[in-house]
């Protein structure tokens, strides 16, 4: 679990006092990995405390994190500083948060990031790392994984060293998120709740977090009586609780299929989950009905026919990636999942999208 967290509007201003006590020495910098969308945004960047050799690296979130990108960043950081960083601070959405977690791990572990995709393969504790979300939904701020696309698979580095040492939850930072993206990333949280609460791995720990997150999602996406500020606050906490819920259970059908879309077509996680979930009535009847209501109420149009022109070989690649995620299928459909979700069945679902 994340060992330290501060919450509240304006809590981002606590960043200097939080990090300074963690500085190893003046040659060991803090490296800020910041979403490029904030470049030139002095409202945010002027509050990033830079001293000695501290550095901001702006990174685009247009593409999801890759193992090769993590390896390049680690090399860049090592080559441009005398000492190993005192800390890595990620500011942005799931993309930047996951990159920050992965970079902090790879600064203290040999080899390449792809070698650590899986469960509990990381040997050494990561460099001190701080996560500051600027969009709510993924739960990446609280989770035990950093999802990376590698040469062969899209899979997380799941380990006890992955969670942030410190998180700053400041709902103010989410105020300029574009509406579509707000919905897509928010729905990631909603889908985490449904997949966790309806899964066979469910237990009292996950259920308690999942139910709270679901209640908050309903407030944000279905109840028009809340103000924008209240919605920002509630979605930030929904994301946190949704992430906690899947920490002790798993996601399900939508995530497995969305990983396939992402691997082959580069479809981003939030929108990919929405595209898939829209067609999963068979598995999550109530969840999908509510999703359609949220979509309508918030006036969201999803991309259509993204699989229309795929070749059989391309379908096979997506199917292989999706079916390789065994824990997700077992959580969703039980131990005999492979009798239900055959490659043929999966293809027929993808063909609807
Ligand atoms: P994102 O980080 O890719 O950001 C989405 C878009 O919103 C980007 O264009 C970004 O620039 C913009 N944005 C972010 N904050 C903004 C702000 N305050 N104002 C204006 N624009 C802003 O999106 P995401 O949905 O948060 O993250 C998706 C990633 O998270 C995927 O790579 C996915 O694999 C990963 N993920 C990780 C976990 C985990 O547990 N580690 C869980 C779910 C998803
Ligand atoms: Zn997700």
From TrEMBL:
SUPFAM superfamilies: Dehydroquinate synthase-like. Residues 184-300 form the Fe-containing alcohol dehydrogenase-like C-terminal domain. InterPro entries: ADH_Fe/GldA (IPR001670), ADH_Fe_C (IPR056798), Alcohol_dehydrogenase_Fe (IPR039697). Coiled coil: none annotated. Residues 4-171 form the Alcohol dehydrogenase iron-type/glycerol dehydrogenase GldA domain. Keywords: Oxidoreductase. One of its GO terms (molecular function) is alcohol dehydrogenase (NAD+) activity. This is Iron-containing alcohol dehydrogenase. It comes from Paucihalobacter ruber.
């Amino acid at each position: 679990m994340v060992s330290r967290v501060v919450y509240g509007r304006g809590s981002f201003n606590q960043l200097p006092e939080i990090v300074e006590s963690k500085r190893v020495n003046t040659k060991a910098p803090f490296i800020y990995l910041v979403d490029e969308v904030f470049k030139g945004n002095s409202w945010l960047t002027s509050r990033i405390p830079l001293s000695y050799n501290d550095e901001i690296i702006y990174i685009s979130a247009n593409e999801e994190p890759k193992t090769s990108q993590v390896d390049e960043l680690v090399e860049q950081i090592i080559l441009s500083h005398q000492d190993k960083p005192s800390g890595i601070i990620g500011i942005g959405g799931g993309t930047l948060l996951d990159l920050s977690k992965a970079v902090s791990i790879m600064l203290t572990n040999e080899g390449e990031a792809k070698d650590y995709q899986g469960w509990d393969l990381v040997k050494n504790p990561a460099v001190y790392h701080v996560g500051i979300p600027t969009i709510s939904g993924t739960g990446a701020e609280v989770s035990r994984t950093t999802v990376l696309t590698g040469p062969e698979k899209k899979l997380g580095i799941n380990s006890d060293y992955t969670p942030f040492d410190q998180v700053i939850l400041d709902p103010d930072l989410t105020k300029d998120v574009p509406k579509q993206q707000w919905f897509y990333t928010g729905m990631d949280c909603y889908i985490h709740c449904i997949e966790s609460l309806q899964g066979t791995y469910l237990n009292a720990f996950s259920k308690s977090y999942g139910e709270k997150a679901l209640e908050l999602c309903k407030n944000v996406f279905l109840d028009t009586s809340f103000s924008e500020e209240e919605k920002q606050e509630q979605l930030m906490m929904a994301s946190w609780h949704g992430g906690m819920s899947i920490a002790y259970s798993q996601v399900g059908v939508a995530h497995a299929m969305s990983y396939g879309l992402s691997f082959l077509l580069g479809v981003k996680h939030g929108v990919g989950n929405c595209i898939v979930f829209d067609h999963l009535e068979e598995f999550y009847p109530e969840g999908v009905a509510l999703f359609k209501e949220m979509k309508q109420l918030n006036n969201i149009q999803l991309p259509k026919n993204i699989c229309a022109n795929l070749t059989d070989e391309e379908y096979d690649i997506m199917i292989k990636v999706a079916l390789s995620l065994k824990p997700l299928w077992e959580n969703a459909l039980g131990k005999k999942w492979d009798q239900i979700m055959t490659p043929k069945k999966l293809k027929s679902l993808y063909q609807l999208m």
